[in-house]
Amino acid sequence: MKIQILGTGCAKCTKLAELAKQAADELNLSYELVKVTNLNEIMGFGVMVTPALAVDGTVKVSGKVPSLDEIKKLLQS
Question: How far apart are CA 73 and CA 2, in angstroms?
Fold first, then answer.
């Protein structure tokens, strides 16, 4: 599983990365966490508001930092 954090490195982006890592670890998932900071790449996902979370190239949420439980649900779906 490839978990992508889309954002320029702001505090919310960092928080989302921490929560995504925690969620994946608690679910015992095999994953690669990638931070996408290039604006052209972020826009390539169709994301206009960061931070955003993508799983295997599919954007699951953008413009907010979901809770740990919400992220777990997104990673399992």
Answer: 15
3-state secondary structure of 25: helix
pTM over 0.90: yes
Q: 2-76, what's its fold?
A: Glutaredoxin (3.40.30)
In this model, does residue 77 exceed pLDDT 90? no
Q: What is the pLDDT of residues 33-50, one digit of tens each?
A: 999 999 999 999 999 999
Do 67 and 15 form a contact (C-beta atoms < 8 A)?
A: no
Residue spans of the domains in the chain: they are: 2-76
Active site residues: 10, 13
How many Å apart are CA 58 and CA 60, to the nearest integer? 6
